[in-house]
Amino acid sequence: MLTMGLDIGSTACKSIILRDGEQILARSVVPLGTGTVGPRKAFGEALDLAGVARSEIDRILLTGYGRFSFDDADGQMSEVSCHARGIYFLLPSVRTVVDIGGQDVKALRLSEKGALENFVMNDKCAAGTGRFLGVMAGVMNVKTEDLGALSEGATEEVSISNTCTVFAESEVISRLSAGVRLADLTAGIHASVAKRVASLVFRGGVVRDVALSGGVALNRGVVRALARELKIDVLVHPDCQMAGAIGAALFARQQL
Amino acid sequence: MAGNSAGETPGAPAQKPKAPLPKSRALVNEQTAGVYARAWEAHERGEPVGWSTAIFPQELCETFDVPVLYPENNAAAISARHMGEPFIQHAEGEMKYPINICSYARLNMGMADKMRKAESIQTQGIDPAMAPPAFLCLANNSCTQLMKWYENLSRNLNIPVFFVDCLFNYSEEEPAAHKIAYVRGQIENCIRQMEEFFGKKFDWDRFLEVQRISQTNRVLFNEIVALNARKPAPMNGFDLFNYMAPLVICRGKESTTVILTELKKETEAHIAAGTSTFRGEEKHRVHWEGIACWPNLGHNLKTLGGYGVNAVMNGYVTAWDVAYEPGDLDGMARAYQVSSTNSLTTPGIMKKRIASIDRFGCDGMLCHVNRSCKLMTFHIMVGREMIEEEAKVPVANFDGDQSDTRVFSEAQFETRLQGLVEIMSGNRNKNGNKEARHA
Amino acid sequence: MPDAMPELEEMLFELGEVASHPRRMLRQYLAAGKKVVGCMPVYTPEELAHAGGMTPMGLWGGQVTPSLAGKYNPVFTCSIMRSCLEYGMSGVYDGLGCVMMPMLCDTFRGMSAGWRAGVKAIPLVPFIHPQNRTDPGAPAFLTEEYRVVRALLEKHMHCEITDEALEKSIEVYNAHSAAMRSFASAANEHLDVITPAIRHHVFKSALFMPKEEHAARVLAIVRELRKRPTHVWKGKKVILTGITAEPEALLNVLAENGVAVTGDDLAQESRQYRTPIPEGGSPMERLPMERLARQWFDRRGCSMAHETRAARGRMLTDMAKETGADGIVVCLMRFCDVEEYDYPMIAAEAEKAGLHCLCLDIDQSTRDNGQSRTKIQSFVEMGM
Q: Is residue B296 part of a domain?
């Protein structure tokens, strides 16, 4: 039994093919979001990698911000449910999932059996989201994916106080022109994101274990900063970026 | 709203060589420390301590001789010392308060919750640390959010509220008779309820005396403020923010009379000697509108100073000018409805600001679009054209917040200030040297 | 029943048209020579205007991206007040004889200034509710305040408002409130027909129609509903709370996800109708102006009426239990501080009662419901 989960995010598309809801046959990440060729590409890549045809997939489920904008699927579910299910598959001890996406930040509470019990999401504001990191990376002229490594070299944290993206941008520019080290500035940006995210997580309540999912989880700097804010270890699975897609594939299996 | 009483210019980088603190400032610090200490002592004896909004009829608790602390004043002091963030985060996180409500409220409700959960804030180096309250005093003359804030405190801490509902004057310059009657009645009912709660009789003779002291203090403060109309001003206008504390937290006490008498003497001495607490040449005089950006007060001060701008006067410090005849309860009820300019119509406020701009010889107005204070911001938005048309001075707005450090942008502040300075300089060249005329 | 009796669906459609086209209604009233008074939300004593023979119309803004209002409104003004000022300044409200505005929050205090500066053609009748609602002097104050409102209405609208007429108007308004309550209860037996959007239409149309006409239509709808067999709703059920649950697309997201609304505490909807104007005990209290004022003191569980207990949270959880709802949806109007201060109490009471509490960010002007869609869908998927 083969199922596919396709997570169409605002900045990246992720697809996964599962055999019998247990074994990952193929995974694909395309750094292009909804409204681009990204979904189609992620879809095709996973099929190619698994060496199967569309007709051999028993059920395809969509999730993510762009889940209503792709025709070639059998259904859709919200990214909240899919992230919860996906993380439970990857890290069964987790009760609190923090997902930092391009647009949204979510804190999810799972039962011991992995069922979604509660969730909170950010206000409609870029503060604390992947988008915020992207803008700041742009200002510093570095790649978003390099931010984590860059902050490793920080010797101190340059505080970024604004949460408004536009103001924070000008704050970063003024720090840059004051000649601060890029690494220290990056650490400050990570701390700012972590603070914003932590207050959301506290709203939902913190229950061990805590995991970070979504693409931003690959940024070690944010993970460290968040762990510090939450005063608790934060787990990250190497497949964290795939959690939504895995969850969708698992729900697809369940629906068969 | 409330004055801050930090011992040194809050948030400012250390100045060298450091000027010794004027005697009046040392007295303010001593007074503030005494108020907090007395509250803790009472609390430890098991006696009630109150938390009060900044423009509640303080005459009542003063007469009952019951210690009262002022969360707005405390939030300002905590913010100026950059200690507010953990409380604001606690309110937004665990307590689930939305980020858009007043930051004083977030800070204080967060602190109250941590105190309730037996986290000793004293031992965390939080200074000044408030003793926990047994009752609340609420007057909504500054805004409606105060009422919601105190509702939440009352609910969260399960303690009573003594409420004097001070009505917004949406139309008239003078509150109508039925409004004064309602407020007066509430003051009388509050006294009765307090007699019951405190288990003490209200001493009407003492009340009259407290009223007299309160009047002496507010008159003294007005006289001091008026001295800053001199050119150049004897005070850096931001000093007024620091000297508000006695009026806010000890308006009915004789210790305030002592402090203000000393401050008046010091200010007159500056005038006589031709000196000022404003450093450098006073090139421009502006009227400040709105609460101070407490966490950024040092930055604001330094940036203003860098451009030779003295914010000689602001509309905020006059909010405690609660003027009435001692013994006239109707007059007192009326005064609590009009002293905060927030409770007047926009044209009503702007009329006062226009007169003040003229009296203090200001060349411009700098307005704090305070994320936490919707009401004042509304007045600024609507009043701007009135100021420009009638006071004929340029107006600049900047974004900030009284406690939340995430809103203010140093770059924006400087750009806006610089723009204002350029217009003021241009006007001066156009109009000839105003300076000479006023001197 | 005579043949002329319109079908249920037709009646619901008609109210939907009224709810969606207040401007058309305004033009109709003006064309018919009516004097129209604008009534800002909430708790504006419309009864006074009604008693003076005028047509009161609720002003609740609309889905517009404001451009003019920004001159007087800070960016952190709630979308209802922003759009009301925009409509005032851009002439959409032209024809209103005056506008009554209660000073219920800081935004209203600011709006009174913004309105006077930006909408000079439509006189403002501002007034204030006493918030110290347990103070013995508060009812007398509000009675006097309403007398001032009455005098201003008489002046601006050139009419007379007698005690006798007011007494009749009070009966009309009480009967209408009762009709709304019976609709809310009948609707719960027919959640297949009364979708969240249709339920909203029935409530919202009340703001733009004379109350006696609206009550007649609503009671006809209730009669038709009661004739039908009870429908058993299989999907999730929720209680809505907040100022409004608009834009309507949001309600459609609920429907698309199989969620029915079984009760509400929305300021635009049931919150207005759950408290009758009291009869009054003493002869003094039975005077119509007194009765009208005393209604304010009977209101419970409202963010705009001072209360220190958690009455609102408990009222919502009770409502959920009574109607078998699975959760409480807090439609949190962005920048509505009074509601924002109530949210933690609602969330805590919901948690205590074992109910889900879903918080949606409400902005009347937005066309993007993406995040709300995700939240609602996730709420439905919970437990799958």
A: no
Do B138 and C373 meet the contact criterion of CB atoms below 8 Å apart?
Answer: no
Give the C-alpha separation, C268 to C271, whole Å.
Answer: 7
Predicted local confidence at residue C5, as pLDDT: 53
Q: Rounded to a whole number, what is the distance in Å from the CA of A78 to chain C's nearest CA? A: 6
Could you state, in order of their start, the residue ranges of all structural domains in chain C?
17-164
Distance to chain B for C308, nearest Cα, Å: 5
How many angstroms separate the CA of residue A120 from the nearest CA in chain C?
8
What topology does CATH give the domain C17-164?
Answer: Rossmann fold (3.40.50)
Distance separating alpha carbons of residues C100 and C58, to the nearest angstrom: 10
**Strands across the sheet containing C327-333:** C259-266, C236-242, C327-333, C356-362
Range of the domain at B124: 23-206
Q: What gap in Å lies between CA A112 and CA A92, rounded to an integer?
A: 8
The CATH number linked to B155 is 3.40.50.11890
One fold for A1-82+242-256 and A92-236 = yes
Return the structure tokens found at C37. Answer: 């008074």
For residue B435, the model assigns a pLDDT of 47
B155 found inside a domain: yes
Q: Is residue B185 part of a domain?
A: yes
Q: What is the pLDDT of residue B439?
A: 36
Q: Cβ A123–B98 below 8 Å, yes or no?
A: yes
Please state, for a pLDDT cut of 90, what percent of chain B lies above it.
83
Q: Residues of chain A with pLDDT > 90: what percent?
A: 64
CATH tag, A92-236: 3.30.420.40
Q: Of the candidates C112, C337, C340, which has its C-beta nearest B170's C-beta?
A: C112
Q: Which of residues 195-234 of A touch B (CB under 8 A)?
A: 195, 198-203, 205
CATH class of A1-82+242-256: alpha beta
Domain ranges in chain A? 1-82+242-256, 92-236
pLDDT beyond 50 at A97:
yes
| Within-domain flag for B59 | yes
| Total domain count, chain B | 1
Write the pLDDT tens digit of every residue in C187-196: 999 999 999 9
* B245 band by pLDDT with thresholds 50, 70 and 90: very high
Instruction: Indicate the helix (H) or strand (E) that contains A195.
Output: helix A182-204
